[in-house]
Amino acid sequence: MAERSTAAVDVADNSGDKPLAAKADKATADGVDTQNGRAAGGPMTEKDGERTTAAPTAAPELHSGHKLARRYRLEECVTRVDGFSSWRAMDEKLRRAVGVHLLPADHPRARSVLAAARSSALLGDPRFVQVLDAVEENDLVYVVHEWLPDATELTALLAAGPLEPHEAYQLVSQVSQAMTAAHREGLAHLRLTPSAILRTSTGQYRIRGLAVNAALRGITSETPQRADTEAIGALLYAGLTQRWPYESDAYGLTGLPKGVGLIAPDQVRAGVHRGLGELAMRALANDGATASRQEPAFTTPEELAKAVAAMPRIRPPEPAFTAPPEYQHTTYQQGSYGRPTPPGGSTTQVRPLAPPPPPLQSRTGRALKWGVAALLIAALGLGSWQLADKLIDHGKGGTNGPNHTQTETDEAPKQVTAGRQLPITDVSVFAPDPDPLNTKDSRKAVDGNPDSGWATPRYDDFANFGNLPTRRGGSGIIVDLGSVQDVAGIDLDLFASGQKLQVRAAAPDASSPSELSQFSQPITELKDVEKKLKATLDKPVRTRYVLIHITSLPPEGADTFRGGINEIKILGTTP
Hints:
CATH superfamily of the domain at 151-310: Transferase(Phosphotransferase) domain 1
CATH architecture of the domain at 151-310: Orthogonal Bundle
Helix content: 10-25%
Oligomer: single chain
CATH class of the domain at 151-310: Mainly Alpha
Structural class: alpha+beta
Strand content: 15-25%
Distance between the termini: 83 Å
Radius of gyration: 36 Å
Number of helices: 9
Number of strands: 25
């Protein structure tokens, strides 16, 4: 097996210059990763671009509580290495946590870091941790980026064990697609390590440090697409085997045995998904090394992303059902807990029963019994007389007969049910953010034809409208009944099953509502629904405007999502 390059995956050689004050077990949400508790940013030789050792630069005297631009308050130093430092900070203007990279303005890499940060900020792809600000001020250069407190580093996930096949599939799919989009804009990462990959609580993978991490450490490459592709292959290999695909140990993972070269994942660990293992080998193949099936190596993230999309979809594992523990009888009885049991004796303590109280045999007791008996006889006689009187009056056509006219106090309540379909005068697309979705087909949702309707565009990768910033409010249809009506139910025929939606009504005095908060009366709860949804209210809702609000779309194909509404019927009351 030919000798392999470690430039793309950043196997740090910590035998060089030591970090100044790297903190162990930090950087969970910081843009600068750590390796085995130490900053993985020591000088090292790169195959595609040799690291230039930074000239000694006096680090600025910063401390917790220092404020940048009278806005960003530094709270905790996460990394300090090669003359720059990374902090967890608080944006006091927007009251949110952020991450900050700091360098002296005369640092040799300050110019390149500023340029990389500004280029990364222009990408605006939600799959990357966003750069929020890049400023040179008061002899300092600082880069502000998102802080994701609910995210977990891939390093921590791999420390717990290898990834399930479905999770490894999501990792390579999302990361390769994100890097494909970045390279189309001319941006490379060059430091795609397990510490640069974050998994959010919703299962989405986010990449931090695009272009910036490499600029902070002076890493360059003549073949950036190949370098990032090999790095993605290393991430997938590590996810499948919990081993680093090189001889050196890195990121808390054990490397491969020395002298054997690169071996297939299924030779490292039993039960590895064969298709994913072959993708990892083809992404890692370099200098003549090829995958087991002798297929060409991937040279760009786009080639890898297309191969992942072409393979059979790997479904998530079925949730495991845990049987409840069997009921165990306890030996505890009141007054006996903690007492030793005689050898050979029964462990069950029998509590003696108290004797029943003696019967009332005195003169007072006998008088009380006869008094109670007399009261019961009187009550039964009175009840029988009242029942007979009612039956006689009913036979004579009395006040409870058919000729009796009920007053307002004994009038029976009206039974209200959802029945007649209310006319709809107008419809519009609910889009709280700019760029409404497919407004031209909104009338098809109320044309009486369930075979046609309004549908959203197709979104890639994420069920919540592609996770686009302009679609975070979801979408849907607003129905105008023309005037305030008593709404008793709804009948929906949807574009596809699996949509997550809720039906809400505006207040009776609402005028042209367009925001979710203006639809204050819930008709149905927010939940995943089938293709047809019918609901009847116990109490009618008075409203003129009804919103069918969609927040999540079902899958339509491989990694694409789409939803919509074919037909809407609003039902009124029928006494």
